[in-house]
């Protein structure tokens, strides 16, 4: 029998905080015991999030962020604050001995120079950066289980890395000339008031953004380089979808040799057969974002183009659950000695 | 410790069958053990519903509908087939001694003449109709617990009756002159191929349909008449929303006497304080369909208009979960001696 | 041959300004010759509105609002600024002799006390208020043609008044006990950055707002009272639709006497047969917001409920075109001696 | 002064027929004078399309398709029938001497073997195929003006070819290794009743389809090969967007040499400066599908990735207007001696 673990959440105004609160209502061995927010301190959580009423956590009162208070009331803390703000929070929490899952980008890039270049800011916690583990459970499960600070992956990197993992690992594709055309639901843009994400600016429309300069590029390259055993430089380009949740990464890779689709598909099925959340579609199947809505699943479909000698990989996740808060909870499970999927066996909301 | 109950599902091609399959993946004491469909027999359930892969039930093979087979493999059966087709299925299943929750309208109307008038069809199971219990747990929990055949309420009636219950019960409003202006997500229109529910016919648009003649009218009137102790004749009018799930009933009622909003609101809070799923919004709050998405919640908000002496009640549910399959599962829980909310404590998917 | 009229637009950052710029690109005898905005002054209009590129008006430079400049460059000015701000602008423009169509609410309510009560502000231009004509062309075409200041109607009032006009006029319905359940697309909420109208807060959801206290209530009552020849006090309640454009007003009215649907429908057809934009659906037809998208049409459908003795009127418009900028242009046409529908014969964008 | 031209439309049940009816209401010199449909013959057009009421064309009666009748009543005929069915219709109409714009794929591929391979059908009108002109006005304006049979381009090819035209022409990019990741609104899937395009199957979701085997691939390759002067073999992959209208093609091309973004952008601006409908976004701008909604515009934005030496071209059109019926009307204009943009100067519907 597991004791009940107490979780803290710093940052409650964004969609990732909201999602973590949602997921923790269903966790059998972890409960939300502390929430903090500068702007909402003093409010009851159920008043801030009416959807939580009559569910666990609704009666918590939001506090000012404070490491000592967090330490007194939590076994583990989730940081759902913006990039740049997270690094010092993490240091304070670690100084109190707390286990931390940071949902921001502050500890994702191992090379501090790469971080400072892409994020155009100074990293104030270089030592702590060495300690952080990249929290993609399928790749780093053991290291995460032993970690005290986990850098929760970005949403696009999660979809991209899981999508490319098996094909790269088996050498079916070249690590050069990769193109990732990615599409994300609007919750990925956050919950700040802005004209560009108003309903009437997004609905019934579609557009690219941040072409060739999205900050998830070096994160994807870092992990693929490790996988490929050679520096990977790729083209990553995001688009905004008029949907709430979901990422669809369409990945274009050059074949090495002449593998058949049967071989490639079989290797993928084998690779992921014991993974709780990566689901290979049938050989002629393609994933849909709604099929993973609200879940940890990563659905993968393949197409092989003999004319252009390319493998096309479609990798689909829920950006808020698998791409942020659900993955953070999976990491917390591992860090606390629970099974990785504890409280995270959800069926997608269809339709 | 509860033994694991075996559930059967007859009818898998519609959204209510899909929703029941989804909900049963999370039930701690009941599992899907038998599915049947004329058109899909022979298929693996996971191939029919890819969203179920790596979840309980995916490996079931869909069978032809057959009462004896169902009896051999189930403790309880959910009927998710069209109106008219359900009544004889129910009789066959009852003849085998099975407990049945019928999601169709076939056993909802106690007065067979009213049924035959509104549904323009003959009822072939008049005796069985006497046995059926109307499955609204908040009103008929005890009777449901003792029933072998439960008529699962319609989606609009669920929202309307729960919305009006407390105000009628307390005599704050007249049972005459009620107007229910209801709006439903498109999943309520079913999953049949039809031009009128194509994406491009529904998206970015809104319309009324079936004004003054929707078949849920007599169902609402039946239950409100019982509540009011007098025949209720009301105006019920549905509209189609460009959303997947959700019903919003805006109910216009004439005040009796001069109650204040404070009094009315307090009576509602008191009335529902122990109900697991009915949530009163704060006095100045109004419900949103997304706040109940994927759940059993019925969220209720009030406004009092001193100028026109009306109480306006907004009652919101998820038409597929609370308004169909989730409510069916709640009824099955009661019929099987489980707590009503077993497996049904979900947080809404926000956003 | 008409000379080309020069129009001015004060206020370009909102959806009504945007819509006016769109409509003027297609006007054969009026062109946008002056635009002004405090926040955008100095910008080229095509840079502010990229959708205007390669269309008339793109090369205009946005100016600071200034009545003298406007007078030098315009024959008529559209005011697309917020309530409260419009009244003094209007006075300044009138002082320069300019014809003005005000899209705000500042001159809509004839009774200044009613205005000050509902808008909780002081009216600084009481004299000018006497001069203003309510700009609903079907009702006040002649007065508008002679006016120098037109108060452009609100979007909900336009749909509600046109919807009720024929039935009230013919005495088919009582002017008491009216209920208007109205639903509006999100563009009606304006283009200000706000969390509550972010895509992820509106999409796939539905909710009521401002129940029993929306400021369009007295405007509707004012016009219906004039029509009915007696004070009308009604229940008007708005809801927010996850669509860009469109208002659907569902109007519940008590029948007077026992008219048949045939009679009522025939009277409506006759009433609107020469109106360019009011379209009666067939007797069994109901309107859809998309059928009027981008146009001046008001589509009306009827249902008669013999059980509750009510007439239900569905009245549908595009809130931005018919409910704001298109109607403003129709008023400008009349004020300038052009046919009311000049430049305003558009087919809806379907789908 | 132009005489009024009489247009015929064969096929009225799909979205392209609907769009053509919409566009013709605004044409100053061409009117719909004949419509035909097997399934709808005998119906008044305004009853079939209620959105057309009070607009030109509503009173036409739909006829059975018949070449002689068409010849008696039309100067030019638009064929909006499925692939395979169009070729013989076209032959019959040409035999009557009629000018024909065929919206199907039947006459788009110059090489009949390529057609028969990709469409898996026999071409019954090989001689007529020689006569057909590919109807992309920016490329083939003169030939179209002299043609009697125009093959109206596919929607994806229109966006792709216009997107690549200037960069290929100027030699900035290689014609090898092109990847086109395309996304289309759901109207592109047609108006047939099908479960896969029901609202609840498309809304709030996103997916790829027909990867590596979409039939627009050879059409794009045909035109790019002519442009590049060498056979082009590319990767074209479509996705389904939960929007009504709009195509966004994200095109990945390898740079030749080391052109700067400034050079490439300037060349595009120059290339399209006199084109009525191709709009280059500013150097840091990216197109959005809504900015071309309902119009003939093709909006193009560029990004240059120095890290991967690729040019990324975003090309956006409205699939129904520019990608089908609007382009058909532009072709008809040219064939009839009218300016290409006659009746086609529309502002997009924003929002």
* Proportion of residues in extended strands of chain A: 15-25%
What is the H/E order of chain A?
A: EHEHHEHEHHEHEHEHEHEEHEEEH
Shape of chain A: globular
Number of helices of chain A: 12
Give the radius of gyration of chain A.
20 Å
Name the largest protein-protein interface in this structure.
A-D, 44 and 44 residues
- Give the beta-strand count of chain A: 13
Indicate the mean pLDDT of chain A.
97
The major sheet of chain A is characterized as: 7 strands, mixed
Structural class determined from secondary elements of chain A: alpha/beta
Percentage of helical residues of chain A?
25-40%
Q: For this entry, what is the oligomeric state of its chains? A: homotetramer
CA distance, first residue to last residue of chain A: 36 Å
Low-confidence stretches of chain A: none
- Widest beta sheet: strand line-up of chain A: 8-9-7-10-13-12-11
Mind sketching the topology for me?
The structure is a homotetramer of 351-residue chains.
Chain A: E1 5-10, H1 15-24, E2 30-36, H2 45-48, H3 67-73, E3 76-79, H4 86-95, E4 99-102, H5 112-119, H6 126-131, E5 133-134, H7 137-145, E6 149-151, H8 155-169, E7 179-185, H9 199-202, E8 207-208, H10 216-228, E9 235-241, E10 247-254, H11 261-272, E11 278-280, E12 298-305, E13 310-317, H12 321-335
Parallel strand pairs in A: 1-2, 1-3, 3-4, 4-6, 5-6, 7-9, 11-12
Antiparallel strand pairs in A: 7-10, 8-9, 10-13, 12-13
């Amino acid at each position: 029998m597991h004791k009940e673990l107490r979780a803290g959440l710093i940052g409650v105004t964004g969609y990732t905080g909201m999602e973590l609160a949602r997921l923790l209502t269903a966790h059998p061995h972890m409960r939300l015991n502390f929430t903090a927010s500068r702007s909402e301190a003093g409010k009851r959580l159920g008043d801030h999030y009416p959807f939580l009423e009559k569910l666990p956590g609704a009666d918590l009162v939001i506090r000012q962020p404070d490491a000592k208070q967090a330490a007194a009331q939590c076994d583990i803390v989730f940081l759902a604050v913006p990039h740049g703000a997270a690094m010092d929070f993490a240091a304070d929490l670690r100084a109190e001995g707390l286990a931390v899952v940071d949902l921001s980008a502050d500890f994702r890039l191992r090379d501090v120079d790469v971080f400072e270049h892409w994020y155009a800011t100074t990293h104030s916690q270089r030592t702590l950066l060495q300690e952080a583990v990249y929290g993609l459970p399928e790749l780093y499960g053991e290291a995460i289980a032993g970690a005290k600070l986990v850098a929760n992956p970005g949403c696009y990197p999660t979809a991209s890395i899981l999508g490319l993992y098996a094909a790269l690992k088996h050498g079916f594709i070249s690590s050069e000339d990769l193109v990732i055309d990615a599409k994300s639901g609007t919750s990925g843009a956050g919950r700040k008031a802005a004209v560009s994400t108003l309903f009437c600016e997004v609905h019934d429309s579609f557009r690219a953004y941040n072409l060739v300069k999205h900050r998830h590029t070096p994160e994807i390259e870092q992990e693929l380089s490790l996988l490929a055993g050679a520096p990977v430089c790729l083209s990553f380009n995001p688009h905004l979808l008029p949907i709430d949740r979901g990422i669809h990464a369409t990945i274009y890779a050059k074949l090495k040799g002449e593998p058949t689709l049967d071989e490639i598909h079989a290797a993928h099925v084998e690779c992921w057969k014991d993974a709780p959340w990566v689901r290979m579609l049938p050989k002629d199947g393609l994933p849909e974002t709604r099929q993973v809505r609200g879940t940890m699943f990563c659905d993968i479909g393949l197409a092989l183009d003999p004319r252009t000698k390319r493998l096309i990989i479609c990798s689909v996740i829920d950006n808020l659950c698998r791409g942020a808060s659900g993955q953070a909870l999976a990491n917390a499970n591992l860090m606390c000695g629970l099974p990785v999927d504890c409280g995270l066996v959800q069926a997608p909301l269809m339709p």
